[in-house]
Design a protein that fits this description.
Oligomer: single chain
Structural class: alpha+beta
Radius of gyration: 35 Å
Strand content: 15-25%
Helix content: 40-55%
Largest sheet: 5 strands, mixed
Shape: elongated
């Protein structure tokens, strides 16, 4: 009896000994769990908050000018075809659909894509027109604008390209279709599809590795935001918890909108393409809201593997994936039987605009310069501004191609720079800074070289303005001169032919570019008067100049020269070359607009007198090759310029449409065998022949 009652007492004593031994591991495990889970939970909270409140860096986009089509507009079939192709239009033999065109002889049938301009929306329309004698002589609309070419962006250091759009403006088939393919239970789960994960786990265990994810759209959003680059169970756990928390803080609509603007679609060189808006532009050269059913399916198909299903590099793989997407859409009722049957027979339909590699980098240098006084670098890289320029894609193409042939027409050591603007308005249409497509030095904007005889029309213009009773019929002395200068030997200017003609008219002196007669006039005018006049025109001149300034001993860039000569081409109406038309914000609200102004107040009669002489230079002066060798039709004005030993060859000239300045020379500033007429004028003439 005593023995039986003693056994329970020993057991109770044993339990009391075990409990302290269990408390320590339990407390340790609890502390370890809290120590790991609590910080992790707050970390995930921080992650989800950063995702929800993140603001994208939206690069500003730079556009060329929109092409306006109207009766009487001067354009060639070649130029219109180039414009359509660079905008990504597809040529077809039948009736064109949106983003397509048909061309036969000189007639065009175009279905435009539409564009939201700051001053109003240009809706997609079918346009029929005929071109005759380099002008539109018949058109189905009074006036219509094609969408402008995207010519560049201002990227942040991340080099990500996206343009956010609200869900309401996206195609409903695309919005519903992404859910059908990527996450059918999107509207019903709380961030994680546990059944989907269970199915994926079974397949992963059977495969011995992760082969299927089962991720929801919310989890994919987390993955894209956090930029996970490896698959792991810990990563999936991060995604699941973050996705669950996001679903408690955002609506389904907000999550889907964020996803569609964030999803990664591939690379354009070093630039990452994010969001359906940029993907539509990159692959199809269309607004996303204008995509056809089969084009939308291509984008949805890319999401599964942007590299594997890249339609540019892997078209057959992308086509198969697109058809899988279309089948899912049909099975889920997103598209009808008829739509499915039609869409799956369509080709990929990718735009070919990417193969037209027209170089806009040099022009962008001017854009950056003219924007810096209005907008900060941060605004340009983050605020998604829309910058509309005056660049003409076809004129830029012809300019670049002309420069590329410099060494073919001249010799292997020559460099070139070209600047082209609208003769009347001063709008900068094109700018090319090198004969090489790979040069990093923009000579048109940065290379300062002596301008030689290009200065002469401005000396004669100053004389017309400042000297009483002077006109181009006045008599000048074309004879030897010796001018004493401080600290150096007397300066003795020579004529290009080493001859002196004696008494000649001012017009003859300008047309035949007589140095001695020009200096004679310069001495009558006075060096200080010339300097002050040039400063009125916008040049910054050192007042301690040598009298060789009368013959162009001043260093300017081709862009500077273009500013000067627009005074003649615009008949005094414009003094500044403008690259920027206007700038709007991401919501299409106008922020600024350029204005063509002139502040020099030069008499129109004086400008017209110089223009008469500039025209004579192109008919029987130093630029007569324009008419007697190249046989360019039309009425031209211009002036050649040559510096000592042919180190710089210049020509600046214009007609009723274009003003162009061309410089030719060597980067090492060594002598060349070219004058203004045998060097720069060759490129200028070929340029105008092809415009």
């Amino acid at each position: 009896m005593n023995h039986c009652t003693s056994l329970p007492k020993k057991k109770k004593k044993s339990n009391r000994k075990l409990l302290p031994l269990l408390y320590k591991p339990m407390l340790f495990c609890l502390g370890l769990g809290l120590g790991l889970f609590v910080p992790w939970y707050f970390y995930i909270q921080h992650v989800t908050n950063s995702i929800i409140h993140e603001t994208w860096d939206v690069p500003s986009v730079v556009y060329a000018r929109p092409l306006e089509l109207y009766k009487g507009q001067q354009i060639t079939p070649k130029a219109l075809t180039f414009e359509l192709e660079t905008l990504g239009y597809q040529e077809v033999s039948g009736t064109p659909q949106l983003g397509q065109y048909q061309a036969y002889n000189n007639s065009f049938d175009i279905y435009s894509k539409g564009f939201n301009f700051p001053d109003g929306t240009q809706k997609p329309q079918r346009i029929k027109l005929t071109i005759n004698n380099k002008a539109i002589n018949q058109i189905s609309h009074q006036i219509i604008r094609l969408e402008p070419k995207v010519m560049g962006h201002f990227f942040s250091s991340a080099f990500e390209n996206r343009h956010p759009m609200s869900l309401e403006h996206m195609p409903s088939t695309l919005v519903q279709g992404i859910q059908a393919v990527e996450d059918r239970e999107f509207k019903h789960h709380n961030g994680v599809d546990w059944w989907g994960i269970s199915r994926a786990m079974v397949k992963n265990i059977m495969a011995g590795k992760i082969v299927q994810g089962g991720s929801t759209i919310t989890q994919q959003l987390v993955k894209n935001k956090l930029e996970y680059d490896q698959q792991s169970w810990l990563r999936k756990l991060h995604e699941a918890l973050a996705a669950t928390l996001i679903e408690t803080k955002l609506s389904k609509k907000d999550i889907l909108q964020m996803y569609l603007n964030e999803i990664y679609f591939g690379q354009d060189g070093k630039v990452a393409i994010h969001g359906v808006v940029e993907a539509a532009s990159f692959y199809f050269a269309k607004p996303v809201e204008r995509l056809a059913i089969h084009e939308q399916a291509v984008l949805v198909g890319i999401i599964k593997g942007p590299s594997w299903y890249n339609p540019i590099r892997n078209p057959s793989r992308a086509l198969k994936r697109r058809n899988v997407v279309l089948k899912v859409w049909h099975e889920t009722g997103i598209i009808t039987q008829a739509s499915w049957a039609k869409a799956k027979e369509q080709p990929l339909g990718l735009s070919q605009h990417r193969r037209l590699k027209t170089d806009y980098d040099d022009y962008m240098g001017v854009v950056k310069r003219q924007l810096k006084d209005q907008f900060s670098d941060e605004q340009l890289k983050q605020d998604g501004l829309k910058i509309f320029t005056n660049l003409d894609p076809y004129v830029q193409y012809v300019s670049s191609q002309t420069a590329r042939r410099t060494r073919q027409w001249l010799n292997a050591n020559m460099e070139a720079a070209l600047v082209i603007s609208d003769a009347k308005t001063g709008a900068l249409l094109a700018l090319t800074g090198s004969q090489s497509a790979h040069s990093q030095f923009n000579r048109a904007l940065l290379s300062r070289r002596q301008i030689g005889s290009l200065i002469k029309p401005f000396l004669f213009l100053a004389a017309l303005e400042k000297l009483p009773d002077f006109d181009l019929n006045a008599v000048l002395e074309d004879k030897a001169l010796s001018i004493n200068t401080q600290g150096s030997d007397p300066w003795q200017p020579k004529n290009w032919d080493q001859q002196s003609r004696g008494e000649i008219s001012a017009r003859e002196a300008l047309v035949d570019s007589r140095n001695q007669a020009t200096v004679y006039l310069g001495l009558k005018l006075g060096l200080n008067n010339l300097v002050s006049f040039l400063e009125r025109l916008g040049l910054n001149i050192n007042r301690a100049q040598h009298p060789s300034l009368f013959l162009g001993a001043i260093e300017l860039t081709p862009f500077d020269v273009q500013h000067l000569y627009t005074i003649f081409s615009s008949q005094g109406q414009v003094q500044k070359i403008n690259a920027i038309r206007f700038v709007s914000n991401i919501n299409n609200q106008l922020l600024s607009r350029s204005k063509s102004t002139s502040s020099h107040a030069i008499a129109l009669n004086s400008i017209n007198s110089i223009n008469d002489a500039l025209h004579q230079i192109t008919t029987h002066g130093s630029a007569q090759k324009i008419t007697n060798k190249y046989a360019l039709p039309g009425y031209y004005f211009g002036k050649t310029g040559t510096t000592n030993k042919g180190k710089d060859s210049w020509f600046s000239g214009f007609d009723d449409r274009y003003l162009a300045t061309v410089w030719v020379g060597r980067d090492d500033n060594k002598a060349t065998p070219y004058s203004g007429s045998s060097g720069a004028l060759v490129l200028w003439s070929h340029l105008f022949k092809n415009l």
